[in-house]
Amino acid sequence: MTQIADAPVHAGSLPQSRHLATAVPGPRSRALHAERRAEVSDGFGTVLPVFVESADGGILQDVDGNRLIDLASGIAVTSVGAANARVRERVTAQLERFTHTCFMVTEYDSFTQVCRWLNEHTPGDFEKRTALFSTGAEAVENAVKIARSATGRPHVLVFDEAYHGRSLLTMAMTAKDNPYRLNFGPLPREVVRAASANPLRPSVTGAVAGAGAAGEAGAARDAKVAGEEIAARALASVEATLAEHGAETFAAMVIEPIQGEGGFIVPAPGFLAGLRRIADEHGIVLVIDEIQAGMGRTGTLFASEHEGVAGDITLSAKALAGGLPLSAVTGRAELMNAVHAGGLGGTYAGNPLACEAALAVFEEFEDGTLLARAREIEAIAREVLEPLTRQTAVVAEVRGRGAMLALEFAEPGTLAPRPDLAAAISKACHAQGVLTLTCGTHGNVIRLLPPLVIGAELLRDGLDVLRAAVLEAAGADTAR
Ligand code: PLZ
């Protein structure tokens, strides 16, 4: 039986219950949003135009007094909670000492200690070094710089459904055009895309149609065989893509261990290990982008651990510093040190407040409780959501690992994506005070990223709202 305490790990003063004081968004949020529209670039979208006043555990409290259940964690960032006591204490103490020196000008030890922890804890039994930056996109770009510097090669291999950022290089590495790349070109030609191994939609890789879909009723073995075949075909296609451009021209291949923005796609078993083999064969640096899936989200510190694969370089950001901007590139010492002195850096890279926050996050992960919670969140969510694949025709799959879970909506049989359903269901959840996010190359996936400190009762309340919204939308859909 799944047991997680009802209270968050560090309950503050914010009641851990859903509460609707007004419609969502309420009048104050609506007024603030109107003001925002007059001041902020329209280029910034908003999932839910609600203005937050405070947040803690699994709750976001808005300016109208509504308490929303947070199934987003600010896109996988506030895993330890948005008002974590250890983070607050360390950051406050640092704030009283100094806010900034620029690590390239004068040093502070917390930077080294963050690097030391990452060197010890990222997968890979080899000597490592780490470099710190501020955003995920910066970590990705620096990994490419390091790989180019170490190999002297130009090309970067990325995959279908990938997301690596919005900066000029990383948006080219990201697969989805709208909104990330639209009108922002030209894109650098050195970024080359290969097939990924999406078990639900192997058509992307040109493999066995329909395999792996909601495998049940004794189909487990078939699904396993089909999964291996999907991986094998995707890997063959990766080899062909490399050969087309000359495998010896690739500095790096960059892959998410679970594709995040692309739809919470857990790659077919063997795909990551296959990429590891291919990278070794051709002297290509394997960069594992753990920015969304890492730092405990999937029930292990790094998601690549589930596959027993270690990147030559592993990227961390998001949950690394409990909400403060910090990202990291951790890799083989000989790669990380191949860069000329002064070649890496940035004014705010590894800011001292963010480093202290990361050290607090590491302390939170020390006793294994949060990793266990991620696994318990998965058990509870699967218990509530998996029956939907039988009760409705449009839930194609419940998938993910740990507290990184998703529902994909599609037409039965054809698997034609249903982004309309994902959007309508998400909207219904928002109106009920449950913050869900969508994702997916086709926008037809609802993803769940609760803070790891969410209480069990609160989580169940949020999941029940989601379940009811799915059943209602599916029912209305059948009655069409
Ligand atoms: N790599 C795997 O998930 C960020 C993007 C939200 P930054 N994902 C959320 C949005 O719409 O901008 C992400 C990621 C993976 C890289 C990044 C980029 O991290 O900190 O947003 O730059």
Features:
alpha/beta, 7-stranded mixed β-sheet, binds ligand PLZ, 4-stranded mixed β-sheet, Aspartate Aminotransferase, domain 2, Aspartate Aminotransferase, domain 1
- CATH homologous superfamily identity of the largest domain: Type I PLP-dependent aspartate aminotransferase-like (Major domain)
Strand order of the largest sheet: 4-10-9-8-7-5-6
Tally of DSSP helical segments? 14
Percentage of residues in DSSP E strands: 5-15%
**CA-CA gap between termini:** 39 Å
Rounded to an integer in angstroms, the radius of gyration calculated over CA atoms is 22 Å
Rounded average pLDDT: 94
* Structural class by SSE content: alpha/beta
CATH architecture descriptor name of the largest domain: 3-Layer(aba) Sandwich
Describe the 3D structure.
With 480 residues, the protein is an alpha/beta fold. It has 14 helices and 15 strands. It has helices at 27-39, 73-76, 85-97, 109-121, 136-151, 168-173, 220-245, 271-282, 333-336, 352-365, 369-385, 388-391, 419-431, 456-478; strands spanning 52-56, 59-62, 67-70, 128-133, 155-159, 191-194, 250-255, 285-289, 313-316, 327-332, 395-401, 404-409, 434-435, 437-439, 445-448. The strands form 3 sheets. A 7-stranded mixed β-sheet has the order 4-10-9-8-7-5-6, with helices on both faces. Helix 8 (271-282) links the parallel strand 7 and strand 8 (285-289). The two termini are 39 Å apart. The model is unreliable at 204-218 (pLDDT under 50). Bound molecules: ligand PLZ. Ligand PLZ binds at residues 75, 135-137, 140, 163-166, 256, 260-261, 289, 291-292, 317.
